[in-house]
Amino acid sequence: MQQVIRLNWTSYVDNHTTDNIEYDFWGGDELAELYYKYLLNENLLLCDYRPMLRKTLVLLSEPSYNLNEYYVLFSKMLDSINNKKVKQRNKQIKACILVLKLVIHWAIDANNYKHAINIAEYSVLYFWNFIRQNNLFTDSAIMENFKIIYTELCTLYIKNHNRFYNLYCFPDGMHGFTNSASPEAEGIAVFEQMGFLAMVGIFSISNMLRSKNEKIISDITNVCKSLKVLIENHRSLLNPLYDSHCIEISLAAIVLYMCNETDFLFSWLSEISNHILFAYKILGKYFPVDSDSFRDLIMENNKNKENFLRSSNLFYWLLEWMSFSENEDLYKAVSENLSATSTNVCVQQWFPDEDSESKIYTTNAGFVTGYSQALHTFPKTLSEMKKVLDTKREKECSLSDFSCFQYGFPELLLLSSRHFRTPIVPDYVKQFVNDIKSVNEE
For residue 271, how many other CB atoms are within 10 A of its CB? Predict the structure, then answer.
């Protein structure tokens, strides 16, 4: 039910309810639950899709399940719509949304919010790509359906925050909920939770900019407070284990910077550089490996550590964020820590090109498009780092080339980074920081 008719609906029900007549509204959540209870003969779906739905529902209770059947199911259902008439197209989209709500309902029933969030994230990104491929940005019905899926994801992020908030508030409170004896697995899980929490703030920031509703600022402030509490109580967030944890760190940094928590932010990043140096030089483990392989994490030691830290995006991001501090001494301290960690590490960053838009909503665009640029010399001062940031690159596409920027949903680039592990677009953060500075100066 659209918000604009909700008051009319309520008024109508109040005026027409009698002893013999009652009214009820069945929205997506109610329909998903009714389907789950009474219509699991799957007549809603074509025969080819039913096995994928069955397997998804059976495996949702498994924490290690990769959700591949759902991803294939959702993408095939959308891809089959391309040349259908409007009425058929809308009917098929409603079926996609109903399947999405059903699978999310089942995941939550299995107490697996991580699966529910990943399902919704993938659906938001893939549906946007469907809109982009078919140029449906001006179709109001299609965009309303997109907002339904988008809102579903927002709700899941918030529910996840509410579910774990009490654990944020205790020292190492999030450790243990993974039921794993591995400190590496627990550290990864805490970074993942920080990413989920930061996305609540990212979405709130974007919603505020779209609606011009300053009341949302209080929501962003509350997320920022939760982030600070989580970071203060979990020392594992000082020890990124994967190089790609630069994504979660940057997502959290955006929210902290937005709320003017710059002292806390730059102190945290400085401590991270201290811990990376100690982990690599002294411990020989718990430093950020340059892959997403869990096996690499448990195999790292002092004898082979150089094999696991040959390149780093994380170092680049720490330097970029510290360059926004405008504190020369603080920047130099972090720069010295990182340069002393390993003389063999190649500090590099990924930049999108003209093909990235076609891939970034469906896969890790960093693997198949764009290009990486290595820093030939380690920027030891603020001015050196700023020169690196201001360097113009011929093949790099601009933010305005992305459809999500053109049509008011820029956060989808960050969502792609969190979900598919696509490197964050450097200009996104640079533009964000400059915009916040301009607002503060005004």
Answer: 17
CA distance 233 to 248: 17
What does the mean pLDDT of the chain come to? 89
Instruction: Report which residue type is found at 349.
Output: Q
Query: What separation in angstroms does the CA of 83 have from each of 77, 285, 418?
Result: 13, 54, 32
End-to-end CA distance of the chain: 40
DSSP codes, 391-418: ---TTPPPGGGSHHHHTT-THHHHHHHH
- Give the integer Cα–Cα distance in Å for 438 and 68: 43
pLDDT in tens, 373-426: 888 888 999 999 988 888 777 788 889 999 999 999 999 999 999 999 999 998
Letter for the amino acid at 49? Y
pLDDT at 182 over 90: no
Tokens of 412: 């989808």
Contacts 24+ apart (CB under 8 A), 277-283: 277/337, 277/338, 277/340, 277/341, 279/239, 280/305, 280/309, 280/341, 280/342, 281/340, 281/341
- Is the separation of the CB atoms in 142 and 131 below 8 Å? yes
Residue 405 carries which side chain, given as an amino acid letter? F
Q: Which residues 6+ apart lie within 8 Å of 10 measured at CB? A: none
Q: Which two tokens stand for residue 57?
A: 């529902």
Helix, strand, coil distribution of the chain in percent, nearest 5: 65, 5, 30
Residue 50 near residue 42, CB atoms below 8 Å: yes
The rounded distance, in Å, linking the Cα atoms of 281 and 18 is 77
Run of H or E residues at 349: strand 346-351
From CA 331, how far away is CA 322, in angstroms rounded?
6
Residue 118 CA to residue 418 CA, distance in Å, equals 10
Q: What is the pTM of this model?
A: 0.88
